[in-house]
Task: structure prediction
Amino acid sequence: MACIEHLVPTTTQQVQLLHCMMSKSYPAYTLEPCGKELGLDWTPIAQCSGSTHGSGLLYKNGVRTAALQPRITFIPTITLDGRYDQFQLRSSLTNLQQQVCEAYQGPRHQACI
Result:
């Protein structure tokens, strides 16, 4: 995730790639086929994930996770705008779109209508 977030230019492409990978039986082995399916250059992501730079990005994510208040009790923990609570977490696991729409402060998105 850390290398995808760092190297894939748009949030939409990041979500598409992660969705593709997580929808497969063995997500750890799907970067190449999912990258090709989406027309993304997957090679830099693979190189990053096996590098000290990738480890550093992952470490930074861990530091951010450890700093959450209240402390996390469940993985994955979903944060919106860097915040979370137990109610939001339970709701996000069953209806993430609704949680995102409720948290979003910009103009109403068509997916939230």
About this structure: The radius of gyration is 16 Å. Residues 2 and 58 are 5 Å apart (CA to CA).
